[in-house]
Design goal:
Elements lengths: L20 H53 L7 H20 L24
Helix pairs in contact: 1-2
């Protein structure tokens, strides 16, 4: 470039933006916060999905108790046996999908989970 006496000037495009420290730092912070939020939501959703079959079975058992008590008292049942069977079938189906599903997570670009050790050993 010196021998040809050429000065390189980047072509201003539509996406050309001058780098400013504060603005880019804010963007990275926003991106990190968004990824942290999505990671925590994914973990929470997994926990709830694992607990769902147990919840549905417990609900079916309680509805069965209510059904038996209403029958015992001679009242018209407000719950049908079909509803109870549907809950148990739904719990089985959810449990089956949990065992078969792969644990694919969305790709996080900045956030990485910190793995902290549970055992605290001190060396003398």
């Amino acid at each position: 470039m010196e021998t040809l006496n050429i000065v390189h000037k980047p072509r201003p495009g539509e996406n050309y933006e001058q780098i400013e420290r504060r603005k880019h730092q804010d963007r990275l912070t926003d991106l990190w916060c968004d990824e942290l939020r999505t990671y925590r939501l994914q973990v929470f959703k997994k926990e709830l999905n694992k607990k769902q079959p147990e919840f549905l079975r417990r609900k079916a058992a309680l509805l069965r108790e209510i059904f038996d008590e209403e029958e015992k008292l001679g009242e018209t049942p407000t719950i049908s046996l079909k509803d109870i069977e549907e809950l148990q079938a739904k719990a089985n189906a959810i449990e089956k999908t949990l065992t078969e599903s792969d644990t694919s997570e969305t790709e996080l670009f900045i956030y990485k989970e910190k793995i902290s050790s549970q055992d605290l050993q001190f060396v003398k």
